[in-house]
Design a protein that fits this description.
The protein is built from 24 helices and 30 strands. With 690 residues, it is an alpha/beta fold. The protein has four domains: 50 residues, ADC-like domains (N-terminal domain of TfIIb); 272 residues, 3-Layer(aba) Sandwich (Rossmann fold), CATH 3.40.50; 194 residues, Dimethylsulfoxide Reductase, domain 2 (3-Layer(aba) Sandwich), CATH 3.40.228; 113 residues, Barwin-like endoglucanases, CATH 2.40.40. The protein has a seven-stranded mixed β-sheet with strand order 5-4-18-17-16-6-7, with helices on one face. Strand 1 and strand 2 form a beta hairpin. The termini are far apart. The structure holds iron/sulfur cluster. The site of iron/sulfur cluster (SF4) has 14 residues, from helix 1. Iron/sulfur cluster binds next to helix 1.
């Protein structure tokens, strides 16, 4: 039996891998504070992914796009990749090669991927799929607090509060064990849908406010206005611990409840009720505001999260025990993945790549001249959209990601990937993106290697290796090391042992905002709660900001933000809004969970959730096959009539591929700060599929 953590979401539930009745590994829940001994159905079935029948165990190669992929040995595959990369680099320069990573990779892999891009390839063109997940909250957190640790407090704190406002988060579906922490507080759920979490709120005496998609920022301003009008603002706290209140509050002044109702569709009476419920709990320092993808995945996602943080600051919540603001990070290593250098603008430890001191420190750990390190590159969508015929990089190495399904405007991304001179993918199966590769490298899965993950609280955890990978399969670290040598790097520059990489990561992050220098295998093995920063020789930090925020003056910033419409609005041709989200049975692009029979059986195909009147208007009934069409593409989805749905909004889960892919529809309009695409609002029409 091996104790480890789930391969999926950022709750990182603890589990043990045991030998099941048929001799194959089976996952069982293990005690841990965040999951309190629970797992969702994804976690329970996670060991099945280890033995999927279409597991890749040999590298695949095609020298010409007109050919099929054929099995080759590792030397042939890696030699081919290195030869092509060197040729492209010689002809077009180092930025002709791009790297794409993932918020699912361990800290050691995220770190090594960034180092590999900057040293072995010399490219600035690296980013990762976390840009599509929580980058808006990260940007807003950095602006407000000077530091982004999704939840700057342990999740267990939340359960003893009186009220929790969840803005665009649906943990009852996406991370069910978290609901154990939300059973005592009254919930105010902000979501255009009557989600499972919204239903829990209503059942337990809480509230569900269902704004028109794309108007969350207006709703936050409307609630802020009411807090001022009803005397719930904490003036002493604002005076002592913040700056910028007056300017930020000017933007809330015009948002009278009736105006807010006009824009958001949320009744003024419900707004007042929510303001009083939250304000009264805040006065007792017993309230939390938590945001999720529903607030963040907009072309104004950063401003929307800033509006929620402004509200939290005005109520005096952050930096106090018993209350606060946090982001519910989604991907398994969504927190650690955004800290260690696979982002276009970043070096390990959450250091900025354009900061001379950061460059000097990291270069000294890597043993190179800081002047040789490239600068910032393109963000994820801009990078994908620039590939090949987009005029940018001619080759891409892609690890742990499936953007053909998970990126917005996915057919456009597919054609960009197809126009590359060389696409190299590292995966455990032939995912929709891996299948486009010229070279496909079979790599180990979560339980076949060790590594650290950082959960949604900023707690560093160790996933332990439970079994060896199948013969012929290598780890990502081994792949990167073997390629680095072929690209001319010294043999010992890219270690393959995760603990060796962790030690180097600790040196690289020493003194940085996300300092891991005190994270050691021994401390991890002891079960110590290692919330970062974990400085060598110092205690970890479960609760940040209790004495001061991370800006040089110790004060939090309220950031002035104004509502603006979504990047795309409805019209006669596209009269409805499509919004996307997740299901309990699937994870991200579904590359893993669609291969688990129990999960695939429960949710076998995409559906479109639609109000019965809206469906009838389109000539559709329950179970009919609908064509949902946006300006970018079509998704064919089974109609699921939902009387609680908004009349103007349809919902599709995004875990499916091909003509079932919800991201055929989505709008790649980007947030100017976080570069987050607008997944949550697309103008569409609904009609029977032909
Ligand atoms: Fe826990 Fe998330 Fe895994 Fe479900 S998917 S078991 S909530 S870590």
């Amino acid at each position: 039996m091996t104790t480890t953590h789930c391969p999926y979401c950022a709750l990182q539930c603890a589990m043990s891998l045991e030998s099941g009745p048929d001799g194959r590994p089976a996952a069982r829940p293990a005690p841990f504070p965040t999951n309190r001994g629970g797992l969702c159905r994804k976690g329970w079935t996670s060991a099945e992914v280890l033995g999927v029948p279409d597991r890749l165990t040999r590298p695949l190669l095609r020298k010409d796009r007109t050919e099929d992929l054929v099995e080759v040995d590792w030397d042939t595959a890696l030699d081919h990749v290195a030869e092509r990369l060197l040729a492209l680099r010689a002809e077009h320069g180092p930025d002709a090669v791009a790297v794409f990573g993932s918020g699912g990779l361990t800290n050691e892999k995220s770190y090594t991927l960034g180092k590999f891009a900057r040293l072995a390839l010399g490219t600035s063109q690296i980013d990762y799929n976390g840009r599509f997940c929580m980058s808006s909250a990260a940007a807003a957190g950095n602006k407000a607090f000077g530091l982004d640790r999704g939840m700057p407090f342990p999740l267990t704190d939340v359960g003893s509060s009186k009220v929790v406002l969840l803005a665009g988060a649906n943990p009852a579906e996406t991370m069910p064990p978290m609901m154990g922490h939300l059973s005592a507080p009254r919930l105010i759920v902000i979501d255009p849908r009557r989600s499972a979490t919204a239903q829990v709120a209503l059942d337990n005496g809480g509230l569900h406010l269902a704004p028109r998609p794309g108007t969350d920022l207006a709703l936050a301003l409307g609630l802020s206005h009411l807090m001022g009008a009803r005397g719930w603002i904490d003036r002493d706290y604002l005076e002592e611990r913040t700056t910028g209140f007056e300017r930020a509050w000017e933007h809330a002044a015009a948002w009278w409840p009736e105006i807010t109702e006009q824009v958001t569709g949320v009744p003024a009476v419900a707004l007042r009720e929510a303001a009083d419920m939250l304000g009264a709990a805040a006065r007792e320092h017993s309230a939390y505001i938590l945001t999720g993808r529903g607030s963040e995945q907009h072309a104004k996602g950063t401003d929307t999260v800033s509006a929620w943080i402004n509200l939290a600051l005005a109520l005096g919540l952050p930096g106090r025990e018993g209350s606060g603001y946090g982001c519910i990070t989604g991907q398994g290593n969504g927190q650690g993945g955004r800290e260690h250098g696979q982002k276009a603008d970043q070096l390990p430890g959450y250091r900025r790549i354009d900061d001379p001191a950061a460059r000097a420190h990291v270069a000294s750990v890597w043993g190179v001249d800081p002047d040789t390190l490239p600068g910032p590159g393109r963000s994820a969508f801009e990078l994908l959209d620039s590939l090949g015929e987009g005029g940018g990089p001619r080759a891409m190495l892609l690890f742990g990601s499936n953007p053909v399904v998970s990126a917005p405007d996915s057919s456009r991304i597919r054609s960009r990937l197809n126009s590359l001179d060389l696409l190299v993918t590292a995966d455990f199966v032939l995912s929709e993106t891996a299948a486009l590769g010229d070279v496909v490298l079979p790599v180990a899965q979560w339980a076949e290697e060790s590594g650290t993950m950082t959960n949604l609280e900023g707690r560093v955890l160790r996933r332990n290796r439970a079994l060896p990978p199948p013969e012929g399969v290598r780890t990502d670290l081994e792949v990167l090391a073997a390629l680095a040598v072929r690209l001319g790097q010294p043999v010992d520059r890219f270690p393959t042992e995760p603990d060796t990489v962790l030690a180097e990561l600790g040196r690289a992050t020493a003194g940085a905002p996300a300092d891991y220098s005190g994270v050691t295998p021994e401390r991890l093995a002891s079960g110590e709660a290692l919330y970062w920063p974990v400085r060598a020789g110092a205690e970890p930090t479960p609760r940040l900001f209790l004495d001061a925020f991370a800006h040089p003056d110790g004060r939090a910033r309220l950031v002035p933000v104004a509502h603006r419409p979504p990047a795309e609005v409805t019209d006669e041709a596209y009269p409805l809004i499509a919004t996307t989200g997740r299901l309990m049975g699937h994870y991200q692009s579904g590359a893993q969970t669609r291969r688990v029979p129990e999960l695939a059986g429960a949710e076998p195909e995409v559906y479109v959730e639609v109000h019965p009147d809206t469906a009838a208007h389109a000539g559709l009934g329950e179970g009919d096959l609908a064509a949902v069409t946006s300006r970018r593409g079509v998704t064919r989805a089974r109609v699921r009539l939902t009387p609680t749905a908004r009349l103007d909004t349809v919902f599709l889960p995004f875990h499916y591929a091909g003509e079932q892919a919800a991201n055929n529809l989505t709008n790649p309009a980007l947030d100017p700060t976080s570069r987050m695409p607008e997944f949550k609002v697309s103008a569409v029409r609904l009609e029977p599929a032909r």
